[in-house]
């Protein structure tokens, strides 16, 4: 077996619980060695011991708080320097259940943007550059369905996940023709600890709308295997998303023109004034 046929190493952020921990388990089952990144070193060590024992893979831990720039730089350095890394699961994130009109902790929102946007952006770009140099690699960015329906959730959180989606789509265009693959995963409501951390409870939600985290990650990996750029695990009819993209593309020829649209009634007035 050649070195290029081996899975290599996956670096997973937010790996101590929820979606990230499930990705770590599923990728270990696929034969990936792992680098687990999260704030809680104790939980990381316990996860590393379990994954190495259960799946016979090598597991390293990197304790890092991605609200802190110095810690982001340490993760970036590992992505760039470790030639064994072939997959980056860009999953770390924060949420808030408060409406912005009621939110009193603006520092929390700053930390959310630091993790969901600033760190996610920097680490993904570092991974792209490293993978291009290695001529292979896969990046999975965790977004959210609120990127498509922003009015259903906290505005800062929704905007941060819209960034992840748009960033992934744009970057995929840049990477066409290379051996670097991209995927954005858009979870809906998922049974993880993020609700408790945001001050709510997943048990208060309609159980028919809440997906088990194992099902979510299994579907996301199936989408990756099928070559999807955008994976919405709960979407049964892929044609609905294709229709959304087609409608968006139809706007393209109308988004930047020399004169304002006639419906605003300003073009003739401007000409008369001249």
Automatic annotation (TrEMBL):
It comes from the Bacteria. The keyword Oxidoreductase applies. Keywords: Oxidoreductase. PROSITE patterns: ADH_SHORT (PS00061). PANTHER family: ALCOHOL DEHYDROGENASE. Belongs to the short-chain dehydrogenases/reductases (SDR) family. This is Short-subunit dehydrogenase. It comes from Rhizobium halophytocola.
């Amino acid at each position: 077996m050649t070195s290029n046929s081996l899975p290599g190493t996956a670096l997973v952020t937010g790996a101590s619980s929820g979606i990230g921990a499930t990705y770590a388990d599923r990728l270990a089952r696929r034969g990936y060695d792992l680098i687990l990144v999260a704030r809680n070193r104790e939980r990381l060590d316990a996860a590393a011991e379990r994954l190495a024992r259960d799946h016979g893979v090598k597991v390293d831990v990197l304790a890092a708080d991605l609200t802190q720039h110095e810690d982001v730089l340490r993760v970036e350095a590992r992505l760039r320097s470790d030639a064994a890394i072939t997959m980056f699961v860009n999953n770390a994130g924060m949420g808030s259940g408060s409406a912005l009109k009621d939110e009193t902790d603006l520092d929390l929102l700053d930390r959310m943007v630091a993790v969901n946007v600033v760190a996610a952006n920097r680490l993904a770009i570092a991974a792209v550059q490293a993978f291009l140099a290695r001529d292979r690699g896969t990046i999975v960015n965790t977004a959210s369905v609120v990127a498509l329906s922003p009015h259903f959730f906290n505005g800062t959180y929704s905007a941060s996940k819209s960034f992840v989606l748009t960033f992934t789509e744009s970057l995929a265009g840049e990477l066409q023709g290379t051996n670097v693959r991209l995927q954005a995963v858009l979870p809906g409501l998922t049974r993880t600890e993020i609700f408790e951390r945001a001050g709510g409870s997943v048990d208060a939600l309609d159980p028919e709308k809440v997906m088990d985290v194992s099902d979510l990650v299994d579907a996301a990996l199936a989408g990756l295997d099928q070559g999807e750029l955008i994976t919405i695990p709960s979407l049964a009819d892929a044609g609905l998303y294709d229709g959304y993209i087609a409608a968006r593309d139809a706007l393209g020829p109308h988004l930047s023109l020399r004169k304002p649209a006639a419906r605003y009634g300003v073009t003739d007035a401007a000409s008369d004034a001249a």
